[in-house]
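Could you join me in thinking about how sequence relates to backbone shape in a protein? To get us started, please write out a protein record for me. Would you write everything just below, so we can both look at the same thing?
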Amino acid sequence: MSQPDEQLHMAIDTGGTFTDVAVRTTDGTMHVWKLPSTPQAPNQAVIDGVHGALERIDRTPQELTRFVHGSTVATNTVITRDGARVGMVTTSGFRDVLAIAHQARPSIYDQHQRRPEPLIPRAAIVEAIQRMDAEGNILVELDEAALRDAVEPLRDQQLDVVVVSFLNAYVNPAHEQRAADLIADLGVADHVVAATDVTAEMREYERTSTAAINAYVAPRISSYIQRLEQGLEQAGVNTKWRIMQSSGGLLSPDDAAQHPARTVLSGLAGGVVGAANWAKHLGLPRVVSFDIGGTSTDIALIRDGIPDETLSSEIAGLPLKLPSVDVHTIGAGGGSIAWLDSGGGLRVGPHSAGAEPGPISYQRGGTELTVTDAHAVLGRLGDELLGGEFSLDVQAAHEAMSDWGQQLGLSAEDTAEGILRVITATMARGIRKVSVERGVDLRTCDLMAFGGAGPLHGADLAHELNMQSAVIPPRPGIASAVGMLDAPIRHDYATSVDARAAAALADLSGTFEAMQATAREDLDHPEAETHFEQLVDARYIGQSYELTVPWDEDWERQREIFEHAHEANYGFADPDALMEIVVARLVVTQPLEHGELESVASIDAEVTPQRHREVYIDGAWRQVPIYDRATFGDGTVITGPAVIEQFDSTIYVRPDQVAHNDTYDFLHLRPAQEQE
């Protein structure tokens, strides 16, 4: 898209504890800020962030030329179960589709494992007389008179939304659409939506669950967007703004209000998009994105600058059949609590102290030892964070660690080292999940470590997994907000098809043309540079799951593409099996013009420590230099052990590592012998 000469870009990422703000000017200079989130009114922190960040650099909201927002409103609505009152109308005999779910058993030997309760209670689900077969042929016509009677009991439940989800409607949505129109006319609920308008793909449970999630979060998201839009307008923001979606692309506020389920994993996507752009810029072919917050760690694999994607994710144990970045989340973060299992073994997480009361060192009433307390006791963290705005009580953490360590027969320092070793092992398992288990050799990968706590653990994990390096971006604690600045506008379309031979390819061409025509109508700026990526979901006949691969008009080449992907993913291909294509997909992106990366070429490479601090390393205290990252220039080299501090994070460099700063202020931690 065409951009004015003077650029002022802003991204705001709202988290549970902090709201992060990133502002970038025309020359690439980045300004960052953190402020407390306002969970009861999340839009207020965003507006405060706009005013506060711009005042700090003497600019005004009217000067903004790009504004991007990442929100956890949809995520938290599902997790906390405080969404809309939702009802559902489904095909006769399928009232329990959400309760029965599917047959996946992630913890097959755990007798205490329980499925999450459906978002729509059984009492709010009624059945309609109608039936389509798997090819979309009408077996039983929709009985409209019976439908009117069936939905009357829902009227008394004062529902916000009613979802209509009929069997096989993804092939032929006629009955579903007609029923939705009829129920809307009856005024049973404020809103009525057909499941095929949310996702039109096979698998009834997943499709219905996705529609239920969309309906559950819709009123809250719509209200939030409306309040935020009013606040931005009053603040003087004139530029069109965008919302981050789970796929790593941007949506307009109107699209986000209509399809809020696409924003459910918004909070995870920003950092991955940023890591992918940085990996491409640095020429790193395989990168593991590693984002550590207070409660969890989000891990993603990036190949050739493109993050792995999935079409079937989960939120709070509920399936979500929409495109999203493929992020593996584990319960390991700065607030993860140390505890002893029944055998006396040291464990860490997944339960967390959170922000309130938080770690003991936070001085907010926390009583349980956490990973952050371990870093403080070992000296990796000093007695203040966020440039002195946040104080840590290291002595309180040390006393608690000493008392707790007595039951293990360990000193406070050895107990703290033990906590970090355990959490490192947990994080390493998470990294292997997205790499080794997908056939990727970690020795060929670099670790992109960010989030508030990522740089504290990057060195240990790169060493533990024998990775090429750990790369710390310029502002790791604000990385999700920074990453959003260069995310593209994106729309996804999918159509169920049935292609088992070359003769069906002509119909596929027509399907793609129809989706492209729809996409052009949906784009705010159809005249802008637009990329259309044509994909298909293919599988061997008889398989239960598909692989998404690029589409080719030649059937034999299409099969070669599929079998290459099948072998890469599963280790084999079957030349004797028949292939079928079941879904045609169109990914439409409009890349925004990237801002310049901030250069530190003008800063002297020679640096001196601000001070020295005792840090406990491998069983002994050592005097370790403490550096200010703001003084690093192009070519700055730091030999470990060292601690590097900055406003939004702290970086630890092991004794066997060397940290090298590049022109664009990315810090590369590598084994010391490689530098000799």
